[in-house]
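Page 37, continued from 36.
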């Protein structure tokens, strides 16, 4: 038996190496999205990944006490940074000192790091433990199963649902995405993420699941009569939107802000006179004017319509205005309009909503966007749920816990 084997037994070092490889792979998987937050975030994760992968190789080749000590310090330090980021937030980046939520990917890497610290410390404190010889019939299956488990969970970090599940904000809904993050606001609506019954990696619950499926259907061709009617309606809608070119114009007319600005859907200023009932649809009566920010000079970019009743309104001519609803929406009256303290379509309870002096709306009415303002046409279609050209002031889709960010 060599000196190195006396320091850390053969099976134990392979287990330590597997844990370090797992943590390193996970950190590599999420480093790219952290570069979207800031270069400091991305560089930290890339450096940590390289150190953990290098340590995994070294612990197999030469598992000395110095290397074990370095492993303890490295992984304990990473765990410390992780704990600080979840309790207080880190002091760098655009969301400095904003606590982050615990995602599955970082929880898995933390478990691996905790295992390294515990095993390495045990060897350093009681060297005799590492020198105990295990029977291959016992050691090989144990180490093999552990290594396979680490390989599986670390590989999962590369799947879209897991790799995109890392969030940065006080409530865990800060999103990293190259496309619109699926926010929609209006009468009692809030920023949220959608999916294929999950959109952008997060499961949609309640009535939203069925509506997501409907919204994802491709547009159908129109006959000449329907197309002419729709053209007239969209012209009327555009002309109405242009009557209120700025937020100042909307507020002067009595419109109130609902929530805040969200990437993908803008800032909604609502009036209850725009509720659509069972009568004929009027394109000049949206419930919401949509703006590219919440400042008085922010510009109008679209409209939103809201329908009452159990079924979606007839709406615009043709079958392509896909209406949607939301569930579990907490709203409260604020000094400047409606506040939306939690993301919609999630597990928000009546008690949680009451705790912030809000009222929980289990299911909203039907709503649809119309991106009719020139230069703000959505590349996804005039009635698309989101407009990917609508972004936060910094050009990203990074939001706070309720799904909002600063617009223009």
């Amino acid at each position: 038996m060599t000196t190195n084997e006396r320091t850390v037994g053969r099976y134990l070092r392979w287990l330590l190496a597997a844990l370090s490889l797992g943590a390193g792979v996970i950190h590599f998987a999420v480093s790219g999205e952290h570069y979207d937050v800031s270069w400091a975030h991305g560089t930290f994760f890339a450096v940590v990944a390289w150190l953990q992968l290098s340590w995994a190789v070294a612990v197999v080749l030469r598992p000395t006490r110095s290397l074990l000590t370095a492993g303890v310090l490295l992984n304990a330090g990473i765990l410390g940074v992780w704990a600080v980021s979840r309790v207080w937030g880190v002091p760098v980046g655009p969301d400095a000192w904003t606590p982050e939520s615990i995602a599955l990917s970082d929880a898995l890497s933390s478990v691996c790091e905790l295992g390294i610290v515990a095993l390495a410390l045990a060897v350093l404190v009681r060297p005799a433990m590492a020198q105990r010889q295990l029977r291959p019939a016992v050691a090989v299956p144990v180490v093999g199963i552990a290594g396979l488990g680490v390989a599986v969970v670390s590989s999962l970090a590369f799947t879209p649902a897991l790799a995109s599940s890392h969030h940065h904000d006080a409530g865990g809904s800060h999103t990293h995405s190259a496309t619109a993050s699926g926010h929609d606001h209006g009468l009692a609506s809030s920023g949220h993420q959608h999916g294929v019954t999950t959109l952008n990696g997060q499961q949609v619950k309640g009535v939203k699941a069925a509506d997501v499926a409907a919204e994802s259907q491709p547009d159908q061709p129109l006959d000449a009569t329907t197309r002419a009617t729709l053209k007239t309606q969209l012209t009327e809608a555009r002309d109405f939107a242009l009557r209120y070119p700025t937020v100042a114009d909307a507020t002067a007319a009595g419109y109130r802000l609902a929530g805040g600005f969200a990437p993908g859907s803008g800032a909604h200023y609502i009036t209850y006179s725009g509720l659509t009932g069972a009568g004929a649809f009027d394109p000049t009566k949206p419930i919401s004017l949509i703006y590219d920010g919440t400042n008085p000079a922010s510009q109008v970019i679209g409209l939103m319509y809201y329908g009452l009743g159990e079924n979606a309104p007839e709406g615009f001519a043709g079958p392509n205005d896909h209406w949607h609803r939301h569930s579990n929406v907490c709203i409260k009256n604020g000094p400047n309009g409606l506040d939306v303290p939690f993301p919609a379509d999630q597990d928000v309870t009546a008690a949680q909503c009451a705790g912030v002096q809000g009222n929980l709306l289990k299911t909203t009415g039907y709503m649809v966007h119309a991106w009719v303002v020139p230069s703000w046409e959505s590349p996804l279609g005039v009635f698309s749920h989101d407009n990917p050209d609508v972004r936060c002031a910094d050009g990203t889709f990074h939001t706070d816990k309720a799904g909002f960010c600063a617009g223009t």
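The longest strand covers residues 300-307. Flag for discussion at group meeting. Residues 191 and 403 are 4 Å apart (CA to CA).
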